[in-house]
Amino acid sequence: MKVIFVNREMAMNPGGGENVDVHLAKALSQLGVQVHFLVGKPWFGKVKVPFKSFPVEYVSSPYLREVYQKVPFPFNIPLGLLDWNFFSWACLNRLKKTDCDVVQVLSLPKLVQIKKYKRVPVVMRFPGPPSSLYKKYIQKMDVVIANGDALVQIRKKFRKDAIEIQIGVDSNRFKPSPSIRRSVRKKLGISNAHLILYTGRFMPIKNVSLLIKSMRFVVDQFPKAKLMLVGNGPLEGKLRNEVKQLDLEKSVVFAGHASSRIEMYYAAADVFCMPSLYDNYPNSVLEAMSAGLPIVATKVGGIPLQIKDGKNGFLVESQDEVALAEKILFLLNNPSKARKMGLENRKWVVKHFSWKESAKKLKRVYEGLLK
């Protein structure tokens, strides 16, 4: 069985949705499924993030995401739609000439139109709730898969038959490690400091500014505390300026994009924070939980499906920097409570999240379409 994964951002600006596709593809490959990728590249210039994990074909189209992420909502919507439409059109032309058994697409509903040209089942995976603009396309798809808040919204508004394919976590990679913790903290020069961690892209929806602002209150009580921001994105320059303006340059560290060694930062941290304005069911929260960390996150999207307030972490409003700081301070001041939350998180993730099991379920979906 040959499956083509279509992913806009894989070689441009990979994030959580891309991470899920890669891990599902690896687990499917171990089950005997041939996975190829169709991914985006700039219209002009080189591939930004070369993708080497699987056979890949690059599709050129204008890349407008770095522009529209800097434009305020709702004025960025036309640019976003234009970007997706250009890429979808280019992929459609490529798929017409490509043989495969199944096409799986990440959040590009118009690609269901490939069914006009060839008999191939289309599986659409949504990492977040789709726009109602795409309702007619969503209803034409053979299968819709999702998890988290996206699954809830899709079943409510578009397809009652949407299938849950849960994301997984590599619990052998993301795990508590005292030796790695000591080594990384010594290397960073923070052996005796408290470390708050964020991992993810620097984009408006991630709301990293809220976390930076909250650090003013944290360092008042713990002057040596550090906030480690692991990631990159179009707002990095703006966030760096904010850190400077708030006189937090000694307290906030920009670690860069570190996907190949990110488990070290989880092992070194004391608290993980996710300050998003919206998140469907963030991979990074599950990775932090697998690493045995307590979580402080905003009460948005599917995060409350992961975090039960006061039990395995804390939830705060998405604009309340004071509440965010208070919950971080509570965990730093109560290390035994923080450890207990972290252990509960680790147990829950190991029990319920497996890439292998998710891939088995997805393979059964493919097989059902090919009967």
Provide an overview of this structure.
It is a single chain. By secondary structure, the protein is of the alpha/beta class. The chain is 41% helix and 17% strand. The chain has 14 helices and 13 strands. The protein has helices at 16-30, 65-68, 77-95, 135-138, 148-157, 178-188, 208-221, 236-245, 262-268, 283-290, 303-306, 321-333, 335-352, 355-369, and strands at residues 2-7, 34-42, 56-61, 102-106, 122-126, 143-146, 163-164, 195-199, 226-230, 252-256, 271-274, 295-298, 313-316. A 7-stranded parallel sheet has the order 3-2-1-4-5-6-7. Helix 7 links the parallel strand 8 (195-199) and strand 9 (226-230). Helix 10 (283-290) crosses helix 13 (335-352). The relative contact order is 0.12.
Can you give me a brief rundown of this structure?
The protein has 371 residues and is an alpha/beta fold. It has helices at 16-30, 65-68, 77-95, 135-138, 148-157, 178-188, 208-221, 236-245, 262-268, 283-290, 303-306, 321-333, 335-352, 355-369, and strands at residues 2-7, 34-42, 56-61, 102-106, 122-126, 143-146, 163-164, 195-199, 226-230, 252-256, 271-274, 295-298, 313-316.
Fold blueprint:
Layout (H helix, E strand, L loop, with lengths): L1 E6 L8 H15 L3 E9 L13 E6 L3 H4 L8 H19 L6 E5 L15 E5 L8 H4 L4 E4 L1 H10 L5 E2 L13 H11 L6 E5 L8 H14 L4 E5 L5 H10 L6 E5 L5 H7 L2 E4 L8 H8 L4 E4 L4 H4 L6 E4 L4 H13 L1 H18 L2 H15 L2
